[in-house]
Amino acid sequence: xxxxxxxxxxxxxxxASGNKKITIxxxxxxxxxxKKLKKGxxxxxxxxxxxxxxxxxxxxxxxxxxIKVK
Length: 70
Known about the structure:
- The chain has no helices and five strands.
- The chain is mainly beta.
- It has one domain (11-69).
- The strands form two sheets. A three-stranded antiparallel beta sheet has the order 1-4-5, with no helix packed on it. The chain has a two-stranded antiparallel sheet with strand order 2-3.
- It is elongated.
- The model has no long low-confidence stretch (mean pLDDT 88).
């Protein structure tokens, strides 16, 4: 998952909700599904935060997406 960098400052990603076996890298936003996760469709909610700088305020957005495990 990638986002256009309209926000200024350091961008971080955090998982707000979802299965424990689904993780997200805080720096890159890369989503990882651990082995032995049962087949099915899972919803994951991720918060994306641009830290801002002296000219721009910090901004946080939430993104919800589905992952289908086969």
